[in-house]
Structure formats: structure tokens, C-alpha cells
């Protein structure tokens, strides 16, 4: 008697990531893997299940009817997998954990991770604060946060554990905006790291610029870019499908990568230490580090 076929949870994780990201390249960035590796995982999953799960459309990749039916089950399996691993590692913990994160990172990447952690640890209450990096750092140093995800320079002395590296790109609603002089910028207030990167790169290239729209909200900044008010800077895998990534032909200077580091307060409580290890493990998964 042959055994029933099994499915590697990592294949399901790749499938869910592609659906949530709307494409292979963005999913690869979130999974910290190459696009070809993610494509291969999807093919292996489709071969294993004997059905096509994804199709390409005008707005990106979307699940087939069979994929839609499997998607919910895949999410359930991944959640149960996280609960199983957590239960096997240590006894259940309880308490409050205060976590800080930049808004864009919290919006794009943290919800899935924190959702999995919350399901695996129902007695841990998460308090998440979203602010600019320097504001988060000040709050952390004042003892207001147990853990903080902070943007930093790759050679920074900030400390902490590097959990993510971001390639930054110029983004616009219309390519013509990149040719304007001075260049209209859509950015967050000082001391935003991306704003500093944009203005420093433009100054070094001798390109005049002006702040056309200043907003502390990611949603507000994206709305301004969609309305054609200017160009902005985003991580490459966070560019919405309806906006344009401006390549070198647009005449804008290259932007150096930035990093996300996780810093932790001394003498963490057991639930805070558990969240620290979980976030580091999940974000470093597949990174080869």
C-alpha cells in the first residue's frame, strides 16, 4: 500500500507569498529568495497537487479557481505548522510585548508574521507602534519598547540583528515627472531615512529638487504619487502594481540599499524573547545567512 502524497510547507509558503504579493518578484523579495527559486517551488507544488494554481493577468499573478480553493487550506496549514513548532520548542508563555516598526515595513511584511505568532501564542498581547525610525529609536532608548525594527545604513553602528536588506528605487505615477526640474519629491517629514537617501543622492548628482508633498503616512504618500504630484522612494518589492519603477533611463541617481535591524531591550521577558527569536527566524528564512 503506497503512502498518500505529502506537501512541504515551504512550497505552500511560497504559493501564499506569490498570491499576497501579486507576483513572483515581490514574493521573492519577501521570502528572501531568488525569483527563479520561487518559480521552481510553485512548479513543484503544482506537480505535487496535479493542478495549475496560478495564472498571469493584466494586473499581475492571481490564483486559478483551483488555487483559490487551495489558498485557504494552505493558510490554515501554515498557521498550524507555526503553532506546532512553537508548542514543541517551549511551554506556553504569556504577557505583553511592545514592538515598534516603520510604517511601510509594518504594513507590507509584519501582519503575516505577527498573525502567525499571535495564533501560536494566544496568551501574548502584542502592542505595535508605527513611527519614523529615529522616533522609534528615541522611544526604544527611553524604555518604551521591548523590541524595535529600525532602518539603518549597512555599515551602521546602530547594533541589533540585521533581518532584512532593502533595495531602494525611485517610483512615480507618470514617467514624465522624473524629467521635471526641480524634481518634485513626495516624502515623509525629517528624519525619514528614505527622504535623506533621496535628497543626498540628488545633491551628489547636482540635481535640483523640491518637496512637493510631505506626509507621514505611507498611504498618503502613495496617493500623492498616484495623483501625479511627484516621485518618491520605496523598497523595490513594495512598489504597487499601478505605479512605475523608474530605471536608470529616467535620469535619476542610483540609491544605496538600506537595512532593517531588530534591536532588543536588555533582560527581555520570556514572551518578548520568543517574539524576537520568531521574527529573526522568519525574516532570515531562506536568506543563506
CATH topology of the largest domain: D-Maltodextrin-Binding Protein, domain 2
The percent range for helix content is 40-55%
Radius of gyration: 21 Å
Q: What general form does the structure show?
A: flat
Q: Which CATH architecture of the largest domain is right?
A: 3-Layer(aba) Sandwich
From the N-terminal CA to the C-terminal CA, the straight-line distance is 41 Å
Unreliable sequence segments? none
Mean pLDDT: 83
Record the strand order, biggest sheet.
Answer: 4-3-5-12-6
For the largest beta-sheet, the strand count, sense and barrel status come to:
5 strands, mixed
- Compute the number of strand runs: 12
CATH class of the largest domain: Alpha Beta
Q: Any idea how many domains?
A: 3
Structural class by SSE content:
alpha/beta
Main attributes of the structure:
D-Maltodextrin-Binding Protein, domain 2, 3 domains, 289 residues, three-stranded antiparallel β-sheet, alpha/beta, 10 helices
Topology:
Layout lengths: L8 H13 L2 H8 L3 H15 L4 E4 L2 E4 L1 H25 L5 E7 L1 H6 L1 H11 L3 E7 L2 H9 L5 E6 L8 E6 L1 E5 L10 E5 L5 H12 L4 E6 L3 H9 L5 E4 L8 E3 L11 E7 L5 H14 L6
Task: Summarize the structure in words.
There is one protein chain. By secondary structure, the protein is α/β, with parallel strands linked by helices. It folds into three domains: 80 residues, Arc Repressor Mutant, subunit A; 98 residues, 3-Layer(aba) Sandwich (D-Maltodextrin-Binding Protein, domain 2), CATH 3.40.190.10; 88 residues, D-Maltodextrin-Binding Protein, domain 2, CATH 3.40.190.10. It is built from ten helices and twelve strands. It has a five-stranded mixed beta sheet with strand order 4-3-5-12-6, sandwiched between helices. β1 and β2 form a beta hairpin. α1 packs across α4, α2 crosses α3 and α4 packs across α6. The radius of gyration is 21 Å and the shape is flat. The model has no long low-confidence stretch (mean pLDDT 83).
